[in-house]
Amino acid sequence: MTSELTLNHYLWVSGLLFALGIAGVIIRRNALVIFMALEMNLNAANLALIAFSKYNKIVDGQVFVFFIIAIAAAEVAVGLAIIVALYKRKQTVSVNELNSMRL
Amino acid sequence: MENLLTIAILLPLASAFLAFLLPAKKPGAIRALALFATGVSLLLTLYIFSQFDRQNAGYQFVKSIEWLPSFGIHLKFGVDGISMVLLLLVGIVSFCGALVSHEIHDREKEYYILFLALTSGISGTFCAMDMFFFYFFYELAVIPMYLLIGMYGSLPAGKHGRTKEYATMKLTLYLTAGAVLALVGLLTMYYAGGRTFDMVQLRENLRGSGLNQKWVFAALLFGFGFLASLFPFHTWSPIGYAAAPTAASMMHAGVLKKLGTYGIIRLALPLLPEGARQWVDLLAILACFNILYAGLAALTQKDWKFVIGYSSVSHMGYIMLGIATLNVVGVTGAVLLMFAHGVMAALTFSLIGFFYHQTHNRNVPDLSGLARKIPFIGVCMVMAVMASSGLPGFANFASEVMVFIGAWSQGSTLFRIATICAVWGIVVTATYLLWAVRTSFFGPFDEKWNMLNDATTLKQKFPYALLLVVLLVVGFWPRTLIDIIKPSVAKQVLSQTVEPKTAMVETR
Amino acid sequence: MNPVWIILFAPLCAAAVITLLTRKSQTFSALISCAAILTGFVITMQLFLQKGEWVSPAPLQWLVVGDLVKIEFGATIDRLSILMLLVVTGVGSAIHIYSLGYMKGDPGFSRFFACLSLFTFSMLGIVLSNNFIQIFIFWELVGVSSYLLIGFWFEKHSAAEAGKKAFLTNRIGDFGMMLGVLLLWTNTGTFSFAELPAKIAAIPAGTLSVIGVLIFCGAVGKSAQFPLHVWLPDAMEGPTPVSALIHAATMVAAGVYMLCRVSFVILPSETALTLIAWIGGITALMAATIAIAQNDIKRILAYSTLSQLGYMVMAVGLAGITPAMFHLTTHAFFKALLFLGAGSVIHAMHHEQDIWKMGGLWKKTPITFITFLIGTLALAGVYPLSGFYSKDQILLLALEHNKVLFAMGAFTAFLTAYYMGRECFVVFFGKPRDNHAYDHAHESPLVMTLPLVFLAVLSIAGGWGEYVPNFLTGGEELEAHHEAWKGFALLLVPAAGFLLSAKIYLKANPSDAPVKAALGRAWTWVENKYYFDELYAWIIKYVQGTIATLCELFDRWVLQKFGIGGLAGTTSVAGKTLRLLQTGNIQSYAFMFGLGVTVIIYYVVVK
Amino acid sequence: MNFHDTLFWFFSIAMLLCGVLVIANRNPVASAMCLVLMFLFMAGLFVLLEAFFIAAIQVLVYAGAVMVLFLFVIMLLDIKASERRRFAYLGVLGGVVVAGAFVWELRIILSKPVTSLQTGTADLSAGLENVVKPLFQHYMLPFEVTALLLLVAMVGVVLLSKKDLK
Amino acid sequence: MNLYATQLECLLVILGIGTLLTDAFRPGGNRRALGYTLATLVFITLLYSFTIHPVNETLFHKMYRLDAFALFFKRLFLLATAFVLLMGAEFAERFETGVAEFYALVLLAATGMLIIASVNDFILLFVALELVTITFYVLTSFLRRQTQSLEAGTKYLILGALSSGFTVYGIAYIFGTTGTTNFDKLAGILHAQAGTPVPPFILGMLLVLTGLGFKIASVPFQIWAPDVYQGAPTPVTAFLAVGSKAAGFALLLRVMLAGLLPVASVWMPVILVLSAATLVYGNLGAISQRNIKRLLGYSSIGHAGYMLMGLAAVNQLGAQAVMFYLAQYAFTNLCAFLVIVAVGRNEISEYAGLGKRSPILGAALFLAMASLAGVPPLSGFFGKFQLFAAVIQAAQTDSRFYVLALIGSGAVVVSLYYYFNVARAIYIEEATDITPLPISLPMRAALYVCMIAMLGLGIYQRPLVEAATLAAGVFGLR
């Protein structure tokens, strides 16, 4: 019995996840959680890539995902480092207190 | 010969760079350099003038250097009758400007650098045969003007609470606004005319090209109109002059302003004849506003420089009117008036500068009977005022009469009315100028001006005398210039513009 | 080199030389100036006496634009111009010499002669012009030189004002003239007096009369006709020789001369003629009435000048070119004489000008008295003095064309005799009222009295044998269009005038009281010159002033504040509002980021 | 509705739920936990898509390294359920609007089945090498760059969190 | 061959790692000297780069190009790097820590940019882009004792990560709908398939555009620029303004004109609108700024708008105009930032009387401002001139461009206002303190280089124009 799953199913899932990611970034004020949301964005992209490379039978997608994951890891490392430094300085990770520069 | 022209144009700029290297501690040397540069380029200009072939209406002494082939840009200088006359104007005014600049005592180095750069920029614009360099030099005036006024200017406090910073910024913005507007038009012509910036070439190519001239002409007309203080874009002008130091007002009122009208004559009229015909009526109306409106506004002014500022706005109106006639007489008159008014304005501002430098007060009612203390300046001022109110014997009269004749013979009722306004404008001009002279130079002498010193030495008198002589010579024998201007106007400017049927032609 | 050029340019050179070189040395300056005009006089004499036709010199092409505009600089030499040359140089020479004495010791001595020469140059220019533009040029130059001379004592408030007033009033007239010239040109395509007459016929009648009137405006300004007459009395602020030369003999007459010169434009148009005639008549009468109530010795003469000019203009209006020129000539003689006499009196009285402070001077200054008397009689038109002939011609002309004008003219003649009588009697007879001044009064030096005598002779003989008109008309006799008795009948008019004034003023302590009583309200009106000055002041102040202020306010508020300021304001406000997006809050940033993306996608993909 | 599909639906719904929870949780630690789960379900989806290698990496790197990092930092800063008001209501509104808009647009974009203009023939289920080999041949340059990137990250982290400041 | 193509990158990497090692082995050496040395070395590399010739075929399996375009940008980046290193050296005292690391990071970021200059594949693009971006996260928050620096870092981090999320997602869709990530193949495929592309592809394209738009700070992704410019250490700000922005444009040009040219009709209007919006936002926002770095932040948005005009025109002239503009913009901005570093103050009011305090600094800053305002005879003028020319050329076929040109004109006028306000502070206003400012010799030299470059390129534009023409030629536009 064949699967009636199509590429679009996967794209929908990734799309929804991506939307969630954006929403998260906008909604949350905790820098860490914002960062998690950003990770979700990347994952959404990964899912789309994998799905594409499956259905188009092209391997490059998977390779790209490999790079993305690696880079994401690095990004997280640096990002968290900055957040830590920020916390040391201001004793908070709540981004809406970062408005010493405006207008 | 060709090189002489180029030298005459670029020498001041070169000496500006030279002055940049000189130590700021030796203002004397720098001043001498400035005098030398302007003086030499004046002499060169005179020589070129003497060599100018009056029969030949085309460009002469053309020097062309390939500059940017991918754009077809050439550094191309040449003079025809029109630019010859105006180049002469630049030479005279800049030299006199340098002469009267001794009143500057602070940061001379920067001052002369800017002044020289300005001079080159203006003469470059007048002689450029390449549209790109025309624009380049045109915009070149922005920096020097801004700084000259900003750094060395002075605005008697509380003129509607405006500062010199305000004045110079306003002036700069207007100049640029007009320039970019014109740029859009110029570039459109560039593409419509087969991608050449060469004015002569472009003129050939534009003929019969399907370019919709109406809006392009509008862009040029108003773009250049900003600088020519065309109503209602004139408000920068009086306050700008009021704030500027003497030499700067001389250069600005005398020559820089003429760049606007020159742009219209040199680019808009010949290259876009159809467009021209669609806009002249409006231009004529605006010109009348310039003449009467500004004249009347001048009646209410108290500050000498504001009076002259408004009067120069009003005089630009005559030039505009002359341009609007689109016939040889009118346009020739306009060009001659550009020259005459340039010299006259320079003279007036330099004279104001002379006594303002001592009195630190140029409020007409505060001055009285100065003529006793500074008779020479007084006499010059009276003559300047007479010239400015179109008295025969001075260049202005001849040119104004030509403008009147041109406008009147243009035939349409609108232009008839415009002419009447213009002629009445002369009465208005005389009214406020005579008032100013009569109040501040005549009448009982006010002891508080006892410290005034007149221009006694020849060195002091020279610039004023020179300007006066020029006015008188041209006034007594206008053909010195008209014979040069007229053929070029006919061939370079109007050969494609069918002259409107004039009432006179009908009767002939 | 045609001698005419010498006549014309000698004074100019004199002026230039004086201003540039000999300003320091008064004697030299004076000599140069006098020499210049005398040369002119001599050469003119030659031309005048020369037999046969005169040759006009070849004109220079002064301003040429293609074949469209050709403005020449030339000289017309014909009977008209020669007569005028004679008047200008002759009377001018006399006055130059007179000034040597009168201006002695004035700090601006050299400047005075420079200006005088400049004026002479411009005046001669008007006389010689051979086209409209040229005449307009010298027209203006005359204006400016009179401006300079009226304001000669520029530190005197009133003098400076008067100069300005004169210049501007003339400008208004010139405004009309310029338009007239332009209109004429567009209809004929030429400015030249030589070519024009042929082309006049082509012009439609309506246009022609408009042209005529417009050109007449110029004359109204220059010859101080109603309603532009207000500047002439104030012009008396200038030194007396100036008043004599410019504001009596020559410049003010230039208007009339110009009208005669371009008569070919005016004569064909009935409307123009009528207007001119009436303006002339009105001016004559009005000025005469004002004159009866003035106290300044020179102002009285000024008003009489006005009314005499009125006569001339009226004559032109009645198509009487010859009478007009005739009266112009004689008037130049006796009015110059009168002014110089007045000047000599003023000189004697140490610059006192109020007639009521004088009196009994005939003993002190006999020559002045006699010559002044001659002038008076001539002016009043007493037989056989020159005034009689010229005035008669005009009045009789009026008589046969227009009875009303004749009446006005006659009454004016009566008034003329009356106020001149008044002046004479008050100044020279009766008891001295200011004894101190009277004791120091003295006859003027020879340089001043000599010209008086010279002019006196002319004023006596100027009219004999109707020589001037004959010369003008080229010898052929005017048809005697009037019987002699009419002329002599007219003698009764001045006689009456003199008698009346004698009755009132020929006494020890004369005063205006009886006249005041008789005239009542009218007196205040004439005393205040019908309030013209006030009226004009009001107009300038309120009408022009208001418009100007409106413009200025519009400029400052509408254009600068609302226009430019508004534009700038909106820009910066827009900037400020835009920058409100820059909250510094990352969440809002992210929101805008996301929103931006979605909006773009919406517009590209969905729509 | 075969087994494969069932799994798909299960994984996706669960993953999205976790995603929602990550955002909705007041406590960062809880968010982090949900995130781990999300990653794992994602790995599941990868498996369904026959991307076994990537799935493995996903579990190792994300669920392993990254999450540990997160938790570590959270503990380090001992951020308690910090935010009083959990959300700024404007923020919520904005987030919902943007996300909603995006999804709505996605509905139009994905209305038709997405196809590629060009498809390959690679058999992804064949095993590691056809994923890994390109990494060292075809994709050598990006690989190197990634290495550099990791170096940068290292240096940066050290700099930013180094204790002593000279 | 590959090595030949990547030698510049290799050199920079070696320099970077070398720096780290030297610091590791002999800590506490003379930081300034190190900076100057590195700057010199990079400068030498720049000179050396002129011996390298373009390579026609693509390298690294079609991922990497060394065409004229790439070389043009590589040189630009090298130049920027040299100056930034110099600034870093001047700035050294103000870092609490890790000056050597700072240099190293700058060098590594530069490496990333050099690669960016020649990417020909989305995967490499993303990786290189991330290399640059992540390095900038660190650099921006380098002054970790200063709240503003950290704040700027965080903002840049979060928004940057967000944008890279978009980019990846976009790349995914492009890959999914075309089956390739390689620009050449992409162009080929798109060219073969007529008609407007399918919505998913457009989505991908737009998301990629988003990512790049973030880098060049174009509306609506400009929002981070002012804050980050203000907060970051001045040398980093300079690097952002010159390097990172140029990198963004290099990518934008490469992607749009090489990969996506066949579908230009779809993205051109977007760029058109974005350009207009960016012009308005940047110039209006800058009007009443008091902090000069923030002012330059806004102005950099404005200039992004100008350059987008060139891209929107989609013609040879436009492309070359953008490149010319970037080059002269580099000199101009570097000049400005050099002065800011030298003065060490950020409030415009504190620049009052600079012309008196130090004529050379005053002149330099004034010229920079004038050039940014686009006034002759400075290079900025010709840059704008070319851009306007390109727009008008496009307008010959599509009159919408006239509107763009007019908006551009308005922007020029407005920008003149706020730039000349700085000029006014320098020359017109009276100095608050008149202590003369000392300038190190290298700084002085650098200033002279910049000024000469600004004037030279303004007056004799030919060499650079020809280089740009050559570089833009690779796209084979009309």
Care to describe what's here?
The complex is a heteropentamer of chains A (103), B (508), C (607), D (166) and E (478). Chain B is built from 21 helices and two strands. Chain B has helices at residues 2-21, 27-51, 81-100, 108-127, 131-140, 142-152, 164-192, 199-206, 213-227, 236-243, 246-271, 273-299, 304-325, 328-359, 370-373, 375-388, 395-409, 413-441, 458-476, 479-493, 503-507; strands spanning 60-68, 73-79. In chain B, α12 packs antiparallel against α13 and α14 packs antiparallel against α19. Chain B is globular and about 70 Å long. The model of chain C has no long low-confidence stretch (mean pLDDT 87). Chain C is built from 27 helices and two strands. In chain C, β1 (60-65) and β2 (69-73) form a beta hairpin. Chain C has helices at 3-22, 26-49, 79-102, 109-128, 132-150, 157-188, 196-200, 205-222, 231-234, 240-249, 251-261, 263-266, 270-291, 297-317, 321-348, 366-380, 386-401, 403-428, 435-440, 446-461, 467-472, 484-490, 492-505, 513-519, 521-527, 532-579, 586-606; strands spanning 60-65, 69-73. In chain C, α14 runs antiparallel to α18 (403-428). Chain D has six helices and no strands. Chain D has 166 residues and is mostly helical. Chain D is globular. In chain D, 72% of the residues lie in helices and 0% in strands. In chain D, α1 runs antiparallel to α2 and α2 (28-48) runs antiparallel to α3 (52-76). Chain E has 478 residues and is an all-alpha fold. Chain E has helices spanning 2-25, 31-49, 68-91, 99-117, 122-140, 147-178, 183-192, 199-216, 225-231, 234-259, 264-286, 292-312, 316-343, 354-357, 359-373, 379-395, 400-428, 441-459, 462-472, and strands at 55-59, 64-66. In chain E, α5 (122-140) packs antiparallel against α6 (147-178), α8 (199-216) packs antiparallel against α10 and α11 (264-286) runs antiparallel to α12. The longest helix of chain E has 32 residues, at 147-178. At the B-C interface, α12, α14, α17, α18 and α20 of B face β1, α5, α6 and α26 of C.
Question: What's this entry about, in short?
Answer:
The complex is a heteropentamer of chains A (103), B (508), C (607), D (166) and E (478). With 103 residues, chain A is an all-alpha fold.
Please tally the helical runs of chain C, counting DSSP H or I stretches of 4 or more residues: 27
Class based on secondary structure composition and strand pairing of chain C: mainly alpha
Major sheet: arrangement of strands of chain C: 1-2
Low-confidence stretches of chain C: none
Q: List low-confidence stretches of chain A.
A: none
In terms of quaternary structure, the protein is heteropentamer
Order of helices and strands of chain C: HHEEHHHHHHHHHHHHHHHHHHHHHHHHH
Per DSSP E runs of 2 or more residues, the count of β-strands of chain C stands at: 2
